[in-house]
Amino acid sequence: xxxxxxxxxxxxxxxxxxxxxxxxxxxxxxxxxxxxxxxxxxxxxxxxxxxxxxxxxxxxxxxxxxxxxxxxxxxxxxxxxxxxxxxxxxxxxxxxxxxxxxxxxxxxxxxxxxxxxxxxxxxxxxxxxxxxxxxxxxxxxxxxxxxxxxxxxxxxxxxxxxxxxxxxxxxxxxxxxxxxxxxxxxxxxxxxxxxxxxxxxxxxxxxxxxxxxxxxxxxxxxxxxxxxxxxxxxxxxxxxxxxxxxxxxxxxxxxxxxxxxxxxxxxxxxxxxxxxxxxxxxxxxxxxxxxxxxxxxxxxxxxxxxxxxxxxxxxxxxxxxxxxxxxxxxxxxxxxxxxxxxxxxxxxxxxxxxxxxxxxxxxxxxxxxxxxxxxxxxxxxxxxxxxxxxxxxxxxxxxxxxxxxxxxxxxxxxxx
Amino acid sequence: xxxxxxxxxxxxxxxxxxxxxxxxxxxxxxxxxxxxxxxxxxxxxxxxxxxxxxxxxxxxxxxxxxxxxxxxxxxxxxxxxxxxxxxxxxxxxxxxxxxxxxxxxxxxxxxxxxxxxxxxxxxxxxxxxxxxxxxxxxxxxxxxxxxxxxxxxxxxxxxxxxxxxxxxxxxxxxxxxxxxxxxxxxxxxxxxxxxxxxxxxxxxxxxxxxxxxxxxxxxxxxxxxxxxxxxxxxxxxxxxxxxxxxxxxxxxxxxxxxxxxxxxxxxxxxxxxxxxxxxxxxxxxxxxxxxxxxxxxxxxxxxxxxxxxxxxxxxxxxxxxxxxxxxxxxxxxxxxxxxxxxxxxxxxxxxxxxxxxxxxxxxxxxxxxxxxxxxxxxxxxxxxxxxxxxxxxxxxxxxxxxxxxxxxxxxxxxxxxxxxxxxxxxxxxxxxxxxxxxxxxxxxxxxxxxxxxxxxxxxxxxxxxxxxxxxxxxxxxxxxxxxxxx
Amino acid sequence: xxxxxxxxxxxxxxxxxxxxxxxxxxxxxxxxxxxxxxxxxxxxxxxxxxxxxxxxxxxxxxxxxxxxxxxxxxxxxxxxxxxxxxxx
Lengths: 416, 486, 88
Ligand SMILES: Cc1cc2nc3c(=O)[nH]c(=O)nc-3n(C[C@H](O)[C@H](O)[C@H](O)COP(=O)(O)OP(=O)(O)OC[C@H]3O[C@@H](n4cnc5c(N)ncnc54)[C@H](O)[C@@H]3O)c2cc1C
Ligand SMILES: [Zn+2]
Fold this sequence. Notes:
The complex is a heterotrimer of chains A (416), B (486) and C (88).
Chain A: H1 5-13, E1 31-37, H2 41-54, E2 59-62, E3 78-79, H3 89-100, H4 102-106, E4 117-121, H5 124-139, E5 145-148, H6 149-155, E6 170-174, E7 178-179, H7 182-195, E8 199-201, E9 206-212, E10 215-221, E11 224-233, H8 239-244, E12 253-262, E13 272-274, E14 281-284, E15 290-300, H9 308-321, E16 330-340, E17 347-350, E18 356-360, H10 370-383, H11 397-400
Chain B: E1 10-19, E2 22-28, H1 32-39, E3 45-46, E4 53-54, E5 67-71, E6 77-82, E7 93-96, H2 110-113, H3 133-145, E8 161-166, E9 169-172, H4 176-187, E10 192-195, E11 211-212, E12 215-216, H5 217-230, E13 234-237, E14 240-246, E15 250-256, E16 270-276, E17 279-282, E18 286-288, E19 301-303, H6 304-314, E20 321-326, H7 329-340, E21 344-350, E22 363-365, E23 367-373, E24 380-385, E25 388-393, E26 396-400, E27 403-405, E28 418-420, E29 425-427, E30 440-442, H8 450-457, H9 467-477
Parallel strand pairs in B: 1-7, 8-16, 9-10, 9-17, 10-13, 17-30, 19-26, 20-21, 20-26, 21-22
Antiparallel strand pairs in B: 1-2, 3-4, 5-6, 5-7, 11-12, 14-15, 15-16, 18-27, 23-24, 24-25, 28-29
Helix pairs in contact in B: 4-5, 4-9, 6-7, 8-9
Chain C: E1 2-5, E2 9-12, E3 16-21, H1 34-41, E4 50-57, E5 63-69, E6 75-80, H2 81-87
Antiparallel strand pairs in C: 1-2, 3-4, 4-5, 5-6
């Protein structure tokens, strides 16, 4: 069933009785050509592009909870392509182009909203760094505009420009940056994949990975054993546990990242705004809630909830940057378990086990990567060649020294 | 309308405030909601999506409808303020929100007529073409329609505070259960913080006509409070909501320091407390459930617990003819209380075939409400009894759907509430459930002093020897009425 | 989260800085192969459950081995790294 405005009208007139479930819920088969572990954004998009781009059909996505129960449904929905380093630039640029055609491709409105993202700077040094980043973005074919103080004021009149510690010097505007409705991304990919025959299997936890003679042969799950020729681990914060099932140790630490949303408000923040002197970023959802977040809680954690210290820190940053927010009331806060890599960049690669692939290390930023990550992992699994834009996301880069330290903070876990 | 001789408001101290530009007079002790109820104002808001007219539903912080903007002289605005929580003060100005041009005539109410085309998630299925129209047209329209109150865009320059406190035991809620817990622990020598979100301790004892120890509920509360206030090891924090349970026995708490008074330069609006207490007792009571039937959201449909609350605590009734609906004895309690106060009860509609006969009101046993009329304010209730259907006149319909214990804080670390088929409610997860909040005990209801004793007995500060003191309080507590019952 | 520093007593998490799993203390020999250093610096068992970690108490400067659960955040105890090493 194709979705369209006409369909909504027609169904409305017929009492909305014609709608069908957006995706099928088959029982697992004994065997598949390809098994994707993890029904988050990356797992679903990988399955979709395997079917769409490579014509493969015998694919299952195994999800231990319900589709979208992980970070894909917990993030702050920022979509951007404002990277500096070769390796990251082309990947996120590719992703943003996929976002721009995503609704038409999936026939699902994921509400990708290119409302513009503004990274603020608060010192001359920061201005130089952002000018450099903006040039890198332009070289990559993306868009960037360096705004001075008045330029920022035109867009964000509500900021505290003269804050005594963190005066606003200007900002880097990325007009094509913005947000998307995170759940809809999972649902849209799920529906599109299901329409191409991919089996989406929920409540199916992978408990073991079968390896024989150095080759993967299948997985053990809470719903029985499933044979597979190729298996991909796409489980975000659970990457270390799943990899351990194949006796692999990854360069990943799991940390909790919190997010917050206020009660619904009439439009007041029209962009994505990011503070330059503390970790704080904010946008307003189409429903009216101010959605914001900050840093990870900074210790390894599998509790999908945050600590008070970081919640307080985020609120302080919010009040420092945009004091109008003091009159909004926080409605909910939550946490997601993040797969942090030492250099802050992801991994899309083969593993030492034949037929076993890994996609992890997304840190704070894997939502915007969903289209390109699935695209590239599908390419790798189908062709056994790394996709051009994901070439540098190698598992062995830490051992070989080919790091992708976008923030320049050093390539160690506790530095991010 | 006010009912003579009822309520804990101070009728000697009238308070004038403005609602949507109109002067309203209440009394010290009123909330905006209770003053509006007394004033006969039933329409206070519009629903989020279909802009259906909405009235006050509850008497507490759980209020979903009566959300208002509080306006300050310099143009500062605080949106989404619950009328049921905001206390009145002279010069307070509040305004309804999410309507245009006015609350009575809201053009966005056309959405209600097109509801068939605006079903849940319709926007995922449309607005995709042409691509450019999303940011240019569709999204701005959606954004403008969405949201409730408004931020002013002005810097919030009001003072706020941050503070820290430590205790052996945090008691959450100063209803009868919390008061008993604090008393027991206080007498046993523990350092106690008793936090209560309301401006007044007592919980539902303020909202019911119940006697304790031969005293009217509020008088008994006053007695316990006097003893607590005299204990140097007990600190009572009113207008303080516990917002979250965190690791290491830490609790977030938000105190409304100045929100009930006219803003002043040195008066903090709120204070965020970090309370460290290795043990806590949750005595946050319960919330009444509404009942589902068509058009159950009309202004004038209220929770029965709210109807009693407005009557007993504020001496206010929202109408002249009240009907009551519910398969719960609280439906009859509501009717009895109203009749005793001289209010006309047009019917108690009780689906149970063996529903109790009314004294001073008529019970419609085996009957159900199947609809209502009155767009801007309820005028009647459609009832089905056996094979017949008829209208019952009413400008207020009190609905009693049973109670949900406030289990929220027990679930802050991932534990799930447990469905109890006998209680027909979700109960707090046990202290050993995976994800349970360490040190938090839920006191199921007023007479459950066992939680207090368990907490004291497990306390590392060697308070076991003083458990006897707690037990004496507990026995005393056994005489407490059940102010809510699942 | 409160961590009991053996020198200072129970203190708020904010005073501490985490440094990773206790395996971090097992430094390879200076001439160990590159893989050993890669493992030390980058690879993590990253367990979900009770585990030993290295934290520093920034107030007194002590390095601690903290016994903690990464699922519940419960802290079971902490001792000085030097003592933990002596105890083996
Ligand atoms: C609070 C927060 C804010 C964020 N903000 C942004 C942002 O603004 N922009 C941005 O780009 N990114 C953001 N991110 C990051 C982004 O959400 C993640 O990087 C991304 O969603 C991770 O990929 P995923 O969607 O596949 O993960 P998930 O949705 O977590 O999917 C992994 C799935 O694997 C399943 N799984 C795990 N173990 C097993 C098993 N053994 N068997 C079967 N299934 C299993 C899980 O249940 C889960 O559904 C944010 C993350 C968080 C937590
Ligand atoms: Zn110390």
